[in-house]
From TrEMBL:
Function: GTPase that plays an essential role in the late steps of ribosome biogenesis.
Annotated binding of GTP 2, by residue: 213-220, 260-264, 325-328
GO MF terms, alphabetically ordered: GTP binding
Listed name of the protein: GTPase Der
Domain of life of the source: Bacteria
Species whose genome carries this gene: Methylobrevis albus
Subunit structure: Associates with the 50S ribosomal subunit.
Length: 467
C-alpha cells in the first residue's frame, strides 16, 4: 500500500496543476460521481524516489451539510482522515483570503500532518502572499510553482520528512537498499555535479534573512540603515508594504528578503490577531528565515537572552550569523574581538566557528560584511556532500579514531549519506545504532564541520539501523 497524500485548497490555487505534475500526465477525471463535475480523483504520484497515491479534493466546499456540496464536503473530510499527509495549497501571489482560512480550519482539525504549499511562487512576485500564511499556524510554507515545476526539491524534502516521521521510510519503493539516495533528491530540481554536490540552488526564491536580538540591541536602526541606503531597492512587492513585514532588495545581484521584526510587531498590533508577540514574534521570524542574524550589543555581549536566542536558531536548524553591533563604542577592538571569538565558541559549541561580524548600524559600518556573511552562511547551509566523499571521509576517520567497542564487540559503522540540506543532515547506517555513544557522534559532527568547511552550521547527524 502506497502512502496517501491529499491536495486541499480553495478553488484556483493550482491544485489540479499540482496533481497533474505529480502524476506526470494529464489524467482524465476519474472517480466522478454522476452530476458532480469535480469530486475526488486520485493517481499514482512520483517525486524523486517517493511513490505515493495523490488525491485531489477539489470539491471541498463550505456549504450547508444537507446540500450536495455539503455532503461532498463531509465525504472529503472523511477521506482526509485516512491520509498520510495533506498538501494544503495556497496562492503565494494573492495571499490569504477568508476562504483559505476556512479550508485551513478543516485541515487543522484533521489528523494527518499538513504541509503548507505556496503555489505560483515562480519569478519575482514570488512569495508576496506567503508571510500572511503564517497566521494559519501551519508552519513554514514550501514555495513551489506547479506550472513550471519549481520548488519540487523542497516539496520532496517536506514529504519525505513526513513519511519518515510516520515510519514509512520504506515507501521508497524501487529505491536502492538503503532507501536514501542524494541523486534522487537532486533530480527533482537542484542541479548537482557528477559527485552529487550541489551547484547553485533552487532559483525561485530570494534569500530570507531575519534580524533578531534583545530589545535595544539596535535591530531597527540596522534594518533602517540597510534598507535606507542606495541598494537597488526593488520596492515593496504587491501586498507588502515596506514598514509592515519585509523588504526586498537586490544585493550584489542576489535577491534578498529581510524580515523586519519590529514591523511585524506593528502589523500584529494593528490586526490585534497575534497578540503579545515579543517572543513568539521572534520565533516566527526565525522559523520563516533561512539566515538569522542574532544582533548583540557589543558593549554588553552574550547575555543569557542572547544565548537563548542563538540556541533557538540552531535548534530550528537555521543558518546563524552573529552581528556585534555598536562596534563604534568599542575602544580596544582587536582585543575585544579576540575575547568575543573565544566566548562565542565556548558558549555556543553547537555552532562552533559561527561568523562574527563587527558593525555599527548607527554609523553604517560593516553592513557589506554583514551581507557577505549572510550569503556565505546560506551557501554553507545548503552544502551537499556526495555519498562517495562522505564514505571516504568516514573510513579515514574510523581508521584514525575508531568508535569504542561495546560489550567487547567492535561497533561497525557501515555507510554514510546526506539525507537533506538546509541544514545539512547526515545519516549513518550501523548494525547497532543505539550503541553509538553521543560523544562519538559529537566528534563526528565536529569532524564533518572541519573537513567539509561548514563553520557555524547546525549539522544534524543520525544513526539508523542498516548494513
Ligand atoms: P484548482 O482550482 O486549485 O485545481 O486550480 P488549477 O490547477 O485549475 O489552476 C488554476 C489556475 O492557476 C490555472 O489558470 C492555472 O494555469 C494557474 N496555475 C496553476 N499553477 C500555477 C503556477 O505555478 N503558477 C502560475 N502562475 N499559475 C498557476
Ligand atoms: P532595537 O530595540 O533592537 O530595535 O534597537 P534600536 O534600533 O531601537 O536601538 C536601540 C538604541 O541603540 C538606540 O538608542 C540606537 O540609537 C542605539 N544604537 C543602535 N545601533 C547603534 C550603533 O551601532 N552604535 C551606537 N552607538 N548606538 C546604536
Amino acid at each position: 500500500m502506497l502512502p496517501l497524500v491529499a491536495i486541499v485548497g480553495r478553488p484556483n490555487v493550482g491544485k489540479s496543476t499540482l496533481f497533474n505534475r505529480l502524476v506526470g500526465k494529464k489524467l482524465a477525471l476519474v472517480d466522478d460521481t454522476p452530476g458532480v463535475t469535480r469530486d475526488r480523483r486520485s493517481g499514482d504520484a512520483k517525486l524523486g524516489d517517493l511513490r505515493f497515491t495523490i488525491m485531489d479534493t477539489a470539491g471541498l466546499e463550505d456549504a450547508d451539510p444537507e446540500s450536495l456540496a455539503g455532503r461532498m464536503r463531509s465525504q472529503t473530510e472523511a477521506a482526509l482522515a485516512e491520509c498520510d499527509a495533506i498538501l494544503f495549497v495556497i496562492d503565494a501571489r494573492v495571499g490569504m483570503t477568508p476562504l483559505d482560512g476556512h479550508f485551513a480550519d478543516i485541515v487543522r482539525r484533521s489528523k494527518p500532518p499538513v504541509i503548507l504549499v505556496a503555489n505560483k511562487a515562480e519569478g519575482k512576485v514570488g512569495m508576496a502572499g506567503a508571510y500572511e500564511s503564517f497566521e494559519l499556524g501551519l508552519g513554514d510554507p514550501v514555495p513551489i510553482s506547479a506550472e513550471h515545476g519549481e520548488g519540487m526539491a523542497d516539496l520532496y524534502s517536506a514529504l519525505r520528512e513526513v513519511f519518515e516521521a510516520a515510519g514509512a521510510a520504506e515507501i521508497a519503493g524501487d529505491d536502492d537498499d538503503l532507501g536514501l539516495r542524494p541523486e534522487d533528491i537532486a533530480i527533482t530540481g537542484v542541479p548537482v555535479d557528477e559527485e552529487g554536490n550541489t551547484i547553485g540552488d533552487d532559483p525561485i526564491r530570494p534569500l530570507r534573512i531575519t534580524v533578531v536580538g534583545r530589545p535595544n540591541a539596535g535591530k531597527s536602526t540596522l534594518i533602517n540603515r540597510l534598507v535606507g541606503e542606495e541598494r537597488l531597492l526593488t520596492g515593496p512587492e504587491a501586498g507588502i508594504t515596506r514598514d509592515s513585514i519585509s523588504v526586498d532588495w537586490v544585493w550584489r545581484g542576489r535577491e534578498i528578503k529581510i524580515f523586519d521584526t519590529a514591523g511585524m510587531r506593528r502589523k500584529a498590533r494593528v490586526q490585534e490577531k497575534l497578540e503579545k508577540l515579543s517572543v513568539a514574534d521572534g520565533i516566527r521570524a526565525v522559523k520563516f528565515a533561512e539566515v538569522v542574524v542574532v544582533l548583540l550589543d557589543a558593549t554588553i555581549p552574550f547575555e543569557k537572552q542572547d544565548l537563548q536566542i542563538a540556541d533557538l536558531v540552531v535548534r530550528e536548524g537555521r543558518a546563524l550569523v552573529i552581528g556585534l553591533n555598536k562596534w563604534d563604542l568599542i575602544e580596544d577592538r582587536t582585543a575585544k574581538l579576540k575575547e568575543l571569538r573565544e566566548e562565542a565558541d565556548r558558549l555556543l559549541p553547537q555552532a562552533r566557528g559561527v561568523q562574527l561580524v563587527t558593525l555599527s548600524g548607527l554609523v553604517g559600518q560593516g553592513l557589506d560584511r554583514l551581507m557577505d556573511a549572510c550569503v556565505k552562511a546560506y551557501d554553507l547551509w545548503n552544502t551537499r556532500v556526495s555519498t562517495g566523499r562522505l564514505n571516504r571521509w568516514m573510513s579515514a576517520l574510523i581508521e584514525h579514531h575508531p568508535p569504542p567497542a561495546v560489550s567487547g564487540r567492535r561497533l561497525k559503522l557501515r555507510y554514510m549519506t546526506q539525507a537533506k540540506t538546509r541544514p545539512p543532515h547526515f545519516v549513518i547506517f550501523s548494525t547497532r545504532p543505539d550503541a553509538v555513544p553521543e560523544s562519538y557522534l559529537r566528534y563526528m559532527v565536529n569532524g564533518l564541520r572541519d573537513s567539509f568547511e561548514m563553520p557555524g552550521v547546525p549539522i544534524r547527524l543520525h544513526v539508523k539501523k542498516g548494513g
